Every structure is written in structure tokens, then in C-alpha cells.
Amino acid sequence: MDFAPLVQPDRGQSARAITVVHPDDWERWLAAQPERTRVAVAAHRVTGKPGNRAILPGDRAEDWSALLVCDEDASSPWKIASLPGTLPGGTYRVANGDSGPWLLGWMLGQYRFDRYRKGTDTEARILLTSDPARVEEATRLVAATATVRDLVNTGAGDLGPAELEGAAETLAKRHGATLAVTRGDTLAAEYPLIHAVGRAATRERQPRLIEVEWGDPAHPRVAIVGKGVCFDTGGLDIKPSAGMRLMKKDMGGAAHALALAGLVIAAGLKVRLHLLIAAVENSVGPDSFRPGDVLRSRKGLTVENTNTDAEGRLILADALTKAGESDPELILDYATLTGAARVALGPDLPPLFTDDDALAGDLLAAGSALGDPLWRMPLWDGYDDMLKSDIADMVNAPEGGMAGAVTAALFLRRFVPKGVAWAHMDVFAWRPTSKPGRPKGGDAYGLRAAFDVLRKRYA
């Protein structure tokens, strides 16, 4: 979908008015309105509660305007995101506020995933803004968010490791970046954990490490790493049907990494970008890796596999090792890694793990300012002992499940070079219930926050 036409600079062109009223201001606003407005409000049973809306008459029948009662802060990108789905096609302007902060929500309120079912509503809702400088960046952020949504919403039968490779190839060709893909015997030799997790898949869906590099080699090196498990059966520790239902979304980390890389390149940030996606399908077959197997990592550490359903951290371990070999200044990784993260913080609030206080502060501040929140969780050294193995350097999944999101992050930390700034985001990549501008289905979390930090550091 082309989102660019949905927001346009306000040059005084004809447009319907949108009035946004806070519940605290409702009585005062209503008292100042003409009788026809008060009658229309009463007919719509609008009482000033958040979410109330109405169509208000004007001097002539064709001069109607829209009313929304909303209690969100004026800086929230979602303030008017509920309107595009309820208004007819046409051009609109906010009559009593600055629409600049709300452009993203307005555009994402018109997002539709139509790969498998074509929609009947093709009318565009255009919002005018008196702050045209915001339009280009908002459009890029919307397109990146839509990229995550589209990839995650696509069924696993249509999106495997080869299709993730295709998405990376498209990104590389569009921007003159270089693409490298490692698979087959070379993958088994050089990235044994990625190969072990994906080796039971069919030949058409064989595992691979996908790398894209872009930018001036003289600039600081930044690595973005994504977990690309295109479908997760759980392996021989197979998931129940309820647990497998949404496992098409287990490549959500890769979707975030691709989208963030695209934002970095489009903005021309002064970095040497290294995008790494470990792409596999965790299948059940004669060649599945087994509980109790001891696997050697690219770093040389041995891992006793205590749970084949804790595969994401295994493939990320090899990818993080590769990222660290090029002396990066910063590594960011995204992964739909643990159910424990959802138990702790729910679907909307991704845990952020990092030992770098400055990086944590920047990410948290950006998330708060942009309505894209993160929550810092501890890399608690005291739980490192949970990763002990009797026969190998470490286990991939401690018994008991306590502090599962923390121990997963501690596992990953062992594959990040000491002294390198690193942040791990355990995202859900899925919205279980709809909210304004955020329909049920695949979604991006922590994407805009991370890009804001990179933009400010490397612009």
C-alpha cells in the first residue's frame, strides 16, 4: 500500500473539519456550540466519554464535520487513529489542534492486510497538515511498520527462509547494498547452531544466514540481528496445537530487523550497517536435533540442548557471534524469544535487556516520547548459574522456567563481545486485540524507538 498520498501539506484546499475534544473539556466545549451542534450531539448519544464520535451539521447539508472525544495526550500518535476507519473517503484537517504528531496513526489507521482477502473499501482518507516537514519521516515509519505487519501476517506456507532471503535481496538491490547468504554444508561448518535448528526442514526451506551490508566502511559499524524462525513446531519437544497456532509470527524479529535496516538506509545515517537474519524452520523430521544433543556454536562454546523449543536463542547465538567479529560499535537484536516475556509484561510492552545504561536510557526515553514503549528488565548475573550444564559449557533452557526471559537474554549475552553496546528486545510481534491504528495481527514493537536512537546518534 502506498501511504504517501494519505497526508499532504495544508495549502488551504477544501477539507472537512475534525474537532478533537478532551473529556475534561467536554462541558465547556458543548456549551459554546450552536443549537444545531448540541442537537446532533444528543442524537448521537455523545456524552463526552472517550471514544465518542459524531457527524456535526454545518450551514449547508454538505458542510458537515467530524467530532471525536479522546483522552489521549496530544503527543500520542494514536490520538485520531480511530477516525479513518469510520469516515468516508475525502480530505480532512484538524480544526483545533496540530495534526503533525498524529500523522502516523492516521496512516496506520488505513492499513489493511489484503494478500488473502481483498477489501471493498478503496477510498483514501487524506489528512492535511500545517507541518509538512513531518510528512516524509512519518511516511517512512508507517511503511516500515507495514513491512513488519505484512511479513508477520503472511502464512508460513508462503513465507519461509527463502522468502526472507528474497525480502533482504529486495532491500539490498533497492539501495545498492551487498547481500551474502550462507547455507548448506558451509552453514553446517560455520554456523552449526543455525544449521542444527533448521536441518530437519525440507530442501526448499533449508536454513540460512542472510547478511546485508551498506554504508561507508569508515563510519561506525552497527549490527542489527533478527530471529527468523519462519515456523516453529517446537521440534521434537513439540508444541500443542494451541501453542503452534500463531507460530507463523516466530520470524517477527527478522521482520523488525529488516524494517529497521530499511529506515537506517533510507535516512542515510552515517553508519556501516550490518543486517543479519538467521532464517530457519524448526521442523519435526528424521534429522531433527534432539533433546540431550550437545551442539557446538560458532564461538566454540558447547550447548547442551535441553529443549528443542528454545531454538531461537540458538540461532541468534551464531548470528550475534558473526556480528561481533567485525568490531561493531553497537548491536541491536529483535526476537520473538520467550513466552515468559509475555507472562511478565503482556503483549504490548517488550522487555529491553542491556548492560549499557546510556543505551537503555536513550531507548526508554525514545519509546516514551513516541508512544512505542519498552521496559528494561535485568540481566541479573545471579541467574547465570541456571545455564550450567553437567556435560557442556551451558544449557540452552534451564529447568523450571523461572525468570525465563532473563535467562534467555543471559544466554545471548555470552555471544556478544565484551565492551560492545548491545540491546536485546524480546518482542511479541503480534497484537491480540485491535486498538485505534493497530489492528489485530502482526505489529511492530520498539521499532520507532530504536530508529529514533540511531537517528540521533548517527545523523
TrEMBL record:
It is an enzyme of class 3 (hydrolase). SUPFAM superfamilies: Zn-dependent exopeptidases. GO terms for cellular component: cytoplasm. Residues 307-314 form the Cytosol aminopeptidase domain. Keywords: Aminopeptidase, Hydrolase, Manganese, Protease. It comes from the Bacteria. GO terms for biological process: proteolysis. PROSITE patterns: CYTOSOL_AP. InterPro entries: Leucine_aapep/pepB, Macro_dom-like, Peptidase_M17_C, Peptidase_M17_N_1. Belongs to the peptidase M17 family. This is Leucyl aminopeptidase. It comes from Sphingomonas aerophila.
